[in-house]
Amino acid sequence: MIQWASKLYIGEKLIMKKDKAISRINKRKVTVGIYCIAFASGPHNLFDIMDANELLFPHYKKADITIVGLARGKDEALNLVHDMLIEVYNKTGAFKVREYFT
């Protein structure tokens, strides 16, 4: 099940089409060039960055995933993760991203 963080980070290239992207992801429709930033699926990582179309795979219908950011393109997603980590560290003094976003 896809859940959305209450404070969703959006890349600059996607701001104008944010609602359309979220709607398409929720309806499990194909998107072009949209990347999701979610809490990491593994315990030793902070975030997962994935093409939104990856969420169309059957595995994600059963998995709990919390999206905390959306970007247009992988480069923007990487930059957005960088900015998110800087903010988390500056406000908490640590990289406890799950605690910061919940």
Description:
It is globular, with a radius of gyration of 13 Å. The chain is of the alpha+beta class. 36% of the residues lie in helices and 27% in strands. The longest helix has 19 residues, at 74-92. The protein has a 4-stranded mixed β-sheet with strand order 1-4-2-3, with helices on both faces. It is built from 4 helices and 4 strands, in the order βαββαβαα. It has helices at residues 18-26, 59-62, 74-92, 97-101; strands at residues 2-10, 34-39, 47-51, 65-72. The mean pLDDT is 92. It has one domain (2-101).
Question: Termini, distance in Å?
Answer: 17 Å
Count of strand segments: 4
Q: Kindly report the average pLDDT value.
A: 92
Widest sheet: strand order?
1-4-2-3
Task: Figure out the total of helices.
Answer: 4
In percent terms, what proportion of residues is strand?
25-35%
Count of domain modules: 1
Order of helices and strands: EHEEHEHH
Q: What's this model, at a glance?
A:
The chain has 102 residues and is of the alpha+beta class. The chain is built from 4 helices and 4 strands; from the N terminus they run E-H-E-E-H-E-H-H.
